[in-house]
Each structure stands twice: as C-alpha cells, then as structure tokens.
C-alpha cells in the first residue's frame, strides 16, 4: 500500500470546544491509485489531506506512507492547494526550484529538473515570469510543477482547480490524468465537485466525518459526462450528499 489510514480520529479544540472532525477512518490507497475524496463543506476533507501531507501531526490512529508513519511533510508527497501559494518575489523557475533547495544535487541538475517539469506542464516560455504576470491557470500549473519537481510518488491535491474557469479547469484535469498515467503517481484529490471526482478517480470516497461510501469508478478514460454510466455514478454519489442534508441522530 502506498498510503494507509488506520482507525484515524481527529479532534480540534479542547474542553467544551472539543470537536471531532474525523471519526474512525480506515482507508488503504494502493500504489498508482487515483482516489478522490468528496463530501459536503466542513466534513473534514481538507483536514484529512493535511494529515496525509504531514502538515498536521495531531491525531489518533495510524497514518503510514509505504509502511512508515507520517510524522511531517516529506518530499515524497507533493501537495497542491486551491490557491497556488507561489512566492511573488521569485520567478516561476525560482518557485519550482524551492523544494530542491536543501537537496545535495549539483545546481545544473536542479536547474535541469526544474526546466523539465515546467516543460511538462507547458510552461517552458514562462520560466522567468513572476507570478503576478501569469494567469490563475498558469499559476496552478506552476504549483503542480513545484509539487512534482522532486518526482514524488504521491501527489495530494486540495480543491486544486476550483478557483479556475471551466475551460482552464478541464485542461488541467486532463493534464493531471496524463501525469498520473505517465508517471505512475498515487493521487489523492479533495474536491467538492462530484463530476470532477467521477471524471478523474478510480475510487471516490464520500466523507462525512467518517467514510460514508467508497465508490469504484470502472470507466475507461477518456470519460464523457454524457455517458449514461457516468451519469448513473454521478447521481448515486449525489444522493449521498442529499442524505447528508437530513438531520443526523
Ligand atoms: N485549525 C482548526 N481549528 C478548529 N477547527 C477547525 C480547524 N480547521 C478546520 N476546522 C473545522 O473542522 C471542520 C472540518 O474542516 P475541513 O476544512 O477539514 O472541512 P472540508 O470538508 O475541507 O470543508 P470545505 O469543503 O468547506 O473546505 C470544519 O468544521 C472546520 O471549521
């Protein structure tokens, strides 16, 4: 297994403010798998992703990457957020170079890796641009290039495309699929968009504090929204959300 989540519980706050956000989560994610996590706002999606990334270390239960406990961030897990989080004072290349800063590699090798990643993401002509001079879609490409510059086996994404227009989002979704396929990545994407989840993932996990449903998506790529099988899966998952609106005991 690439990522293993065992009996995971997560609470925020203490005393009267104590609030359980994740409850008894068990999930195994295989090498090279593409998993989407969906759920209504506030159901704990981002919390789960931050724990997998090692950005938050306070939890009960076990979180393993290749059998080793996750105790902090790691260059073997690239992370992309909804906002690109680029440093405005660094160029595109400078931003993508950052994760390599501490690595004992010759400068020429680092530079070559950065250029290769930027070329892969269609940014070869924007290497020396500053973030304010590029579009939101390009900035998100840079964020993906940065997350993948060290060739991590795992890519974690939290609503990476939700701030983009529909056309740009569609392009980046296809590029993500291409990267997953070509590089054998294990991908975990958090999204509130069921259509995006069905379009991309092999398994869709519906989260509602605990795992409510795990839906396999056995449709070949390229998937088409107009395909009846696509629509049926989409509607089945959507029904879980409607149930979420009902008061829980
Ligand atoms: N640092 C924090 N301290 C206290 N509560 C928090 C913290 N971070 C998140 N929460 C709360 O935990 C719950 C889950 O938050 P989380 O961001 O994981 O949900 P989400 O499913 O990603 O939501 P959204 O889709 O709106 O981003 C929410 O009620 C949120 O207010």
Automatic annotation (TrEMBL):
Keyword Cell division tagged: no
KW Protein biosynthesis (keyword) present: no
Superkingdom, natural source: Bacteria
Gene3D superfamilies: P-loop containing nucleotide triphosphate hydrolases
One of the record's GO molecular function terms: ATP hydrolysis activity
Keyword line: ATP-binding, Cell membrane, Membrane, Nucleotide-binding, Transport
Limits of the ABC transporter domain: 3-234
InterPro entries per UniProt: AAA+_ATPase, ABC_transporter-like_ATP-bd, ABC_transporter-like_CS, ABC_transporter_ATP-bind, P-loop_NTPase
PANTHER family: ALIPHATIC SULFONATES IMPORT ATP-BINDING PROTEIN SSUB, TAURINE IMPORT ATP-BINDING PROTEIN-RELATED
Family: Belongs to the ABC transporter superfamily.
Protein name as it appears in the record: NitT/TauT family transport system ATP-binding protein/sulfonate transport system ATP-binding protein
Organism whose genome encodes this protein: Pseudoduganella lurida
Lineage of the species this protein comes from: Bacteria, Pseudomonadati, Pseudomonadota, Betaproteobacteria, Burkholderiales
């Amino acid at each position: 297994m690439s990522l293993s989540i065992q009996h995971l519980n997560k609470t925020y706050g203490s005393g009267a403010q104590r609030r359980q956000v994740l409850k008894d989560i068990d999930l195994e994610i295989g090498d090279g798998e593409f998993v989407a996590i969906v759920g209504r706002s506030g159901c704990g999606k981002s919390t789960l992703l931050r724990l997998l990334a090692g950005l938050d270390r306070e939890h009960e239960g076990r979180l393993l990457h290749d059998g080793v406990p996750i105790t902090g961030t790691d260059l073997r897990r690239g992370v992309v957020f909804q906002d690109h989080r680029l440093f405005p004072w660094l160029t595109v290349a400078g931003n993508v170079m950052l994760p390599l800063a501490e690595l004992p590699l010759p400068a020429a090798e680092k530079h070559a890796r950065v250029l290769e990643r930027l070329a892969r993401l269609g940014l070869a002509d924007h290497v020396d641009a500053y973030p304010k001079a590029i579009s939101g879609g390009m900035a998100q490409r840079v964020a993906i290039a940065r997350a993948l510059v060290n060739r991590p086996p795992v890519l974690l994404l939290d609503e990476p495309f939700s701030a983009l227009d529909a056309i740009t989002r569609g392009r980046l979704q296809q590029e993500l699929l291409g990267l997953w396929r070509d590089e054998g990545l294990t991908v975990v994407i958090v999204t509130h968009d069921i259509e995006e989840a069905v379009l991309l993932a092999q398994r869709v996990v519906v989260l509602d504090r605990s795992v409510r449903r795990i839906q396999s998506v056995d449709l070949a790529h390229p998937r088409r929204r107009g395909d009846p099988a696509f629509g049926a899966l989409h509607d089945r998952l959507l029904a879980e959300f409607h149930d979420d609106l009902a008061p829980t005991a």
